[in-house]
Amino acid sequence: MHENFFHKVKVYYEDTDSGGVVYYANYLRYLERARTEALFSIGYSNNKIQKEFDALIIVKSCNIEYKKSAFLEDELNIRSFVKSITKTSFFMNQIITKGDDTIVEAQVHLVFIDKNGKPIKIPDEIYLKFKPYFCDTIKT
Q: Which of 23, 84, 113, 120 fits a 20 to 30 Å CA distance from 52?
């Protein structure tokens, strides 16, 4: 059984359109914040990865499905977990919910790259910290 990262966000006025509905692109921001907090929870940050490993984590692709709307002042929960991993990248599934309702489901493909933009092997230290959050699917 894999573990999950959890992060909460509150919908602010700046996140909504004139009708009080969360603007679709803001869900991407919420997902990014949740991934950043997941990284912090295992003792890393994007700055630390850049300094210690001369690497970056970038989003290669994102498949997002909007299921329901969220509204001004809603409290949203974001659950994130690693669905699969390769030597240089991993797929993170992220689900935004409000209560029992699923608002958004996303699968994000994240890649470790060097300063020249070339994919590199995920550093062993990070891999080991992330390992409890992996599903059983590990690809080579």
A: 84
